Amino acid sequence: MSEIKHPQERTLIAVKPDGVQRRLVGQIMQRFEQRGFKLVGMKMLQVSEELLSQHYQELRRKPFYPSLLHYMTSGPIVVMVWEGHNVVRTSRIMVGDTNPAEAQAGTVRGDFSIHISRNVVHASDSVEGAQREIQLWFHRKELMDWDFALGGCVGTILYSWLCS
Ligand code: IDP
Ligand code: MG
After folding, report:
1. In a domain, 4, yes or no
2. Phi–psi pair at 11, nearest 5 degrees
3. For this structure, is 122 an active site residue?
């Protein structure tokens, strides 16, 4: 059996301060692991307004931007990079609508939140956006390019279609 390597898509997921304070980090991570995505980066930090203004550059002129800054700097966040087939689109579906009132049950926002100003989690909204955000939040060496230690197809059976 030979293993075919494909370039894998990556996305940025962050548990926002309300998610950390409500002890939801584990449950949110579990959903991504359970789905089959691969964790390649993770850290906890108190984010600066400078970094946030770059992250949310498209929202700087929105009326809610000052309250968004206040919310996002109200405590530490946990920021992660997840990898896998179609991870950007699939994570947006898993996270649910920006407004939790519209988010489907079964999504992170639909299960854990009720108001748009406290929606628990961030997920990149496009492949290009994800690349920009990953570069903004992580140094290259903070991202782990790991694989199944035993190589070949051992372990990849559950998580990948790359074995042939
Ligand atoms: P997204 O997080 O689903 O990608 P965006 O439109 O990119 O949604 O907005 C970024 C974040 O800004 C939202 O997750 C939410 O925290 C906040 N936000 C967006 N719209 C509103 C609003 O109308 N009132 C308050 N906060 C908002
Ligand atoms: Mg967004």
Report:
1. no
2. -140, 160
3. yes
